[in-house]
């Protein structure tokens, strides 16, 4: 495992182009484009204000930089550095900005979600979509880039509009049976749209592409409901994480629950529980971590390793304040591995634990208990390998063969706040507060 | 007279029944004769009663009268006493009556109270029972109450969380509305509306490089078509995968059914009729299934009828299997139960069987041994049955003879081979010896010649003598050879040995080694040659000294073995 040097970034805006060749980072109001392999700066662009959001177009030719405060979006071209494009939303403000799947249209959501403006870079035309819903996930593009689903709210009722991304033609417009639509997501095969309600009501609705309601699923009433929803990459499963600390998995044939995963505070079965154990830094000789690259200044970085705990294992549980809204309880993060074999979940009242479930056996595969709350985890796009970080200077990797904790070798401590895999699966971008670092994996994986 | 009379009176008095109207007794008690006795008696009685009346005396001595006053006093006192007694008697009787009545009353009371007590006990138990039931009811109600309370609490917590969520959302919305109002106010005030604008250097081409099309009805329908196409594609794909899965599962079911049939059919031997029925049923179902199979294959396995049949037959088979298993289980448990309850039954039976078997075996073995013994006896004592014994003997001896003959034959063959070898050896050895001898002779003659050449007189004579000697030696050798071979033959008949032959010799050097040496034509020392010659000469005496030769042979044999070994070693 190699680590690159540390670069500056701001706002956690650091993205690799879809073709995997370039890395774009934002430093205050500058946009820096580097080549991934050499990390040489290829282009440097200057925007008019501090960049709030940055994204690559799907063909990796253009980058949009949005400055929400100023209501501006600037688009830069990689091929033609002289080309410039500026979109000014004017007084109506800007809340979010995104590319369309074809990379030639920009959708801006105005302040107060008054409307969605669709700017065409080909024709310079503008179209408006009214009444977009201000919710957790109101817009979603299908994976093949053909269709866009938009949640709308009119007259206290929720609607979903399906647009054809080619010419923004409204294909379908239908009402949903939700109380307060919180989000929608296309299945990876683009044929089913999952729509779920807010946390006050546990309801998932499945609509086919042509707007027919295929199925409704509601696990229980009254208690706080859905916290997170995700599709498996094969479109076979829909995993729903809810506030009752359970994940329910629906199958794509009958749209009925096939299993539910419970996050218990005591693990009794013989599944492997990896517990991160920190070692005192004075013990230098006893280096049990496989890939601890010890540099002299690591005296303050405590080394850690994973220990396998024998069952029964007690998981530390933090009880949330019952009076506050959006309590820190329930399954907030779900992620399927790329082959749909594993599902990684995080339960918010066991924030330092990541649970890995095997979808073939429908059972718990591994539990990773960290020393502090897990901030981010992501699956390798190609292999069943999970990378996670907890806000300290270490990077943790899990695979079915075992797991390893790696110290990020930087001077001055680099707290890993979030991470992103490269689309080729052989390198990781680690983002700290103001810094970023690239981690290159070996071709053969090293395990514990 | 007085004591006897008194006694008479007393006995008379006592015998007569006491009655108040027994004045006749007084008449009987006292007569004119026994007055003084009566009087003394009465006085005595009065004294004993404690009456202090004066004594009754006769008015005149010897007269028939009495002193009336004391008599009257005595009588009066007696009457008083009597009245008193009567009074007390009456009182006592009264008392007794009273007491008996109270006793009766008490007894009645007692019985009544007992009844009451019993009744109250029963009541008490009934009350206990009701109390218990009520306690139970209380418990259940308490648990219900607890659950209800828990549920209420849970609902309360849910309500609380919902309320907090609602309030949070409401607050958020309110804040947004406030922002909106603010912005609206700002806009109205500002009036410097920044127009939204797109400032782009140049338009970009479409990502797919094609020209954009006008929006027409055709495009909308084409969009619709495309959408439906993609949907249909997806459905088709999923249907195909489901069909495949179905086919797999059906195959598995078929296999299972076949296996179940296979398992069940040979294991129902008891109920033949049932088995026949089953098999017929199976055959029927199989037949149907077979027909269904073919049709199914052709119809792409979508025939619901066939599917139903398959599942029904599987269920049937499974039921049979399960029943069978249950039967077996029950049998096993029964056996186990029997085993546990009555430990000797089963094991003893098997045990007895085993014992029986073993006894039989033992019997058989004994018989066999006996037969063997008999045979042996017969063999040993030929007098039993001469003919058969003779026959047997003959048989045996014949067998033995045969064997012996065979062995003899082999032996003879071997002997012949050995003899032949030996002959060859000896011939070769003899030849060699002869040659050697000749050489020696020549050498000797030569030397002699040389020597004599130094003295020029005896040349020719030496040559001739040497020739003569060599001729002699030559002549002697065939003799020796023949004799040696004869001796060897004789010897070999007695001993079947491998020892390479030869005439042996004195203990100095075994001839066989010499022989080998000569055979291999190893350059020998002259002494050895001389000794060889010596040996040959000695062999002449073989016929005479058999035993000596024998011993020598023995020696030689032993030595030869060693020498052979040695030679072999040297060879290798």
UniProtKB/TrEMBL annotation, chain A:
Origin superkingdom: Eukaryota
Pfam families to which the protein is assigned, alphabetical: WD40 (PF00400)
One Gene Ontology CC term in the entry: microtubule organizing center
Protein name, per record: WD repeat-containing protein WRAP73 isoform X2
Lineage, top ranks: Eukaryota, Metazoa, Chordata, Craniata, Vertebrata
Gene this chain is encoded by: wrap73
TrEMBL record, chain B:
Subcellular location: Cell junction, Adherens junction; Cytoplasm, Cytoskeleton, Microtubule organizing center, Centrosome, Centriolar satellite
PANTHER family reported in the protein's UniProt record: AFADIN- AND ALPHA-ACTININ-BINDING PROTEIN (PTHR46507)
Record-given protein name: Synovial sarcoma, X breakpoint 2 interacting protein a
Family: Belongs to the ADIP family.
InterPro entries in the cross-refs: Adhesion_Centrosome_assoc, Afadin/alpha-actinin-bd
Positions of region (Disordered): 265-304, 460-482, 522-544
One GO CC annotation: centriolar satellite
Residue ranges, compositional bias (Basic and acidic residues): 278-304
Residue spans of biased composition, Low complexity class: 525-535
Major localization listed first in the record, in broad terms: other
Stored Pfam families: ADIP (PF11559)
């Amino acid at each position: 495992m190699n680590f690159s040097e540390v670069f500056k970034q701001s706002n956690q805006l650091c993205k690799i182009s879809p073709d995997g060749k370039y890395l774009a980072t934002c430093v205050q109001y500058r946009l820096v484009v580097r080549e991934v392999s050499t990390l040489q700066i290829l282009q440097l662009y200057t925007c008019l204000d501090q960049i709030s959001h940055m994204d690559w177009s799907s063909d990796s030719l253009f980058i949009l930089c949005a400055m929400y405060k100023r209501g501006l979006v600037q688009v830069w071209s990689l091929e033609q550095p002289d080309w410039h494009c500026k979109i000014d939303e004017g007084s109506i403000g800007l809340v979010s900005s995104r590319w369309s799947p074809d990379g030639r249209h920009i959708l801006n959501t105005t302040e107060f979600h008054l409307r969605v403006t669709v700017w065409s870079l080909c024709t310079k035309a503008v179209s408006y979509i009214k009444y977009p819903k201000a919710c957790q996930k109101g817009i979603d593009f299908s994976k093949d880039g053909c269709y866009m689903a938009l949640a709308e709210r009119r007259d206290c009722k929720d609607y979903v509009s399906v647009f054809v991304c080619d010419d923004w033609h409204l294909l379908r417009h239908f009402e949903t049976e939700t109380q307060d639509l919180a989000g929608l997501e296309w299945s990876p095969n683009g044929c089913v749209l999952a729509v779920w309600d807010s946390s006050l009501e546990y309801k998932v609705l499945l609509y086919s592409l042509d707007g027919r309601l295929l199925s409704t699923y509601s696990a229980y009433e009254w208690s706080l409901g859905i916290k997170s929803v995700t599709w498996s990459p094969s479109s076979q499963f829909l995993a729903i994480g809810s506030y009752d600390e359970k994940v329910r998995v629906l199958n794509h044939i009958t749209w009925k629950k096939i299993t539910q995963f419970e996050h218990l505070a005591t693990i009794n079965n013989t599944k492997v529980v990896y517990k991160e154990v920190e070692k005192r830094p004075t013990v230098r000789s006893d280096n049990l971590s496989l890939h601890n690259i010890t540099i002299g200044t690591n005296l303050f970085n405590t080394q850690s390793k994973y220990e396998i705990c024998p069952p029964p294992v007690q998981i530390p549980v933090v009880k949330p304040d019952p009076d506050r809204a959006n309590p820190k309880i329930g399954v907030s993060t779900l992620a399927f591995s790329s082959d749909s074999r594993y599902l990684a979940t995080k339960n918010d009242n066991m924030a330092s634990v990541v649970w890995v479930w095997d979808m073939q056996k429908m059972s718990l595969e591994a539990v990773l208990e960290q020393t502090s709350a897990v901030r981010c985890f992501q699956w390798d796009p190609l292999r069943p390998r999970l990378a996670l970080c907890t806000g300290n200077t270490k990077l943790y990797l899990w695979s079915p063969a075992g797991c390893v904790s790696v110290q990020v070798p930087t001077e001055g401590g680099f707290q890993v706040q979030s991470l992103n895999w490269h689309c080729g699966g052989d390198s990781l971008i680690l983002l700290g507060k103001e810094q970023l670092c690239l981690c290159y994996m070996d071709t053969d994986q090293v395990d514990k | 007279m007085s004591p006897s009379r008194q006694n008479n009176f007393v006995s008379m008095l006592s015998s007569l029944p006491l009655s108040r109207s027994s004045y006749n007794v007084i008449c009987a008690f006292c007569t004119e004769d026994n007055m003084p006795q009566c009087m003394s008696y009465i006085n005595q009685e009065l004294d004993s009663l404690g009456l202090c009346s004066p004594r009754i005396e006769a008015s005149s001595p010897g007269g028939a009268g009495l002193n009336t006053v004391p008599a009257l006093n005595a009588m009066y006192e007696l009457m008083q006493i009597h009245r008193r007694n009567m009074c007390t008697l009456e009182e006592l009787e009264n008392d007794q009556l009273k007491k008996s009545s109270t006793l009766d009353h008490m007894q009645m009371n007692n019985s009544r109270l007992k009844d009451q007590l019993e009744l109250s006990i029963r009541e008490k138990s009934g009350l206990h029972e009701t109390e218990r039931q009520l306690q139970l009811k209380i418990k259940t109600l308490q648990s219900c109450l607890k659950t209800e309370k828990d549920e209420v609490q849970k609902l309360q917590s849910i309500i609380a969380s919902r309320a907090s969520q609602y309030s949070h959302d409401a607050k958020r919305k309110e804040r947004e509305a406030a922002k909106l109002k603010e912005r609206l106010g700002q806009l109205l005030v500002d009036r410097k509306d920044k127009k939204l604008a797109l400032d782009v250097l140049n338009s970009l081409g479409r990502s797919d490089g094609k020209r954009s099309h006008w929006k027409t009805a055709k495009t909308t329908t084409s969009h619709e078509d495309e959408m439906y196409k993609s949907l249909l594609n997806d459905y088709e794909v999923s249907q195909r995968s489901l069909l495949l899965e179905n086919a797999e599962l059906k195959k598995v079911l078929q296999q299972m059914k076949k296996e179940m049939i296979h398992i069940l059919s040979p294991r129902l031997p008891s109920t033949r009729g049932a088995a026949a029925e089953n098999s017929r049923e199976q055959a029927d179902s199989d037949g149907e299934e077979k027909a269904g199979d073919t049709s199914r294959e052709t119809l792409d396995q979508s025939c619901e009828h066939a599917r139903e049949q398959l599942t029904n037959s599987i269920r049937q088979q499974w039921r049979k299997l399960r029943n069978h298993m249950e039967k077996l289980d029950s049998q096993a448990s029964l056996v186990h139960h029997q085993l546990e309850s009555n430990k000797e039954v089963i094991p003893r039976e098997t045990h007895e069987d085993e014992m029986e078997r073993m006894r039989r075996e033992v019997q058989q073995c004994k018989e066999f041994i006996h037969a063997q013994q008999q045979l042996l006896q017969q063999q040993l004592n030929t007098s039993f049955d001469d003919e058969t014994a003779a026959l047997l003997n003959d048989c045996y001896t014949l067998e033995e003879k045969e064997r012996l003959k065979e062995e003899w034959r082999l032996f003879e063959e071997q002997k012949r081979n050995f003899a032949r070898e030996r002959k060859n050896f000896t011939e070769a050895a003899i030849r060699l010896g002869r040659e050697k001898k000749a050489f020696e002779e020549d050498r000797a003659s030569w030397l002699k010649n040389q020597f004599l050449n130094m003295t020029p007189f005896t040349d020719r004579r030496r040559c001739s003598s040497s020739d003569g000697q060599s001729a002699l030696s030559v002549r002697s050798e065939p003799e020796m050879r023949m004799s040696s071979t004869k001796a060897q033959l004789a010897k070999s008949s007695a001993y079947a040995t491998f020892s390479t032959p030869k005439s042996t010799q004195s203990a100095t050097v075994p001839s066989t080694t010499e022989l080998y040496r000569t055979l291999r034509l190893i350059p020998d020392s002259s002494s050895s040659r001389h000794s060889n010659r010596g040996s040959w000469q000695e062999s002449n005496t073989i016929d005479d000294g058999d035993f000596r030769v024998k011993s020598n042979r023995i020696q030689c044999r032993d030595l030869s073995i060693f020498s052979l070994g040695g030679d072999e070693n040297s060879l290798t």
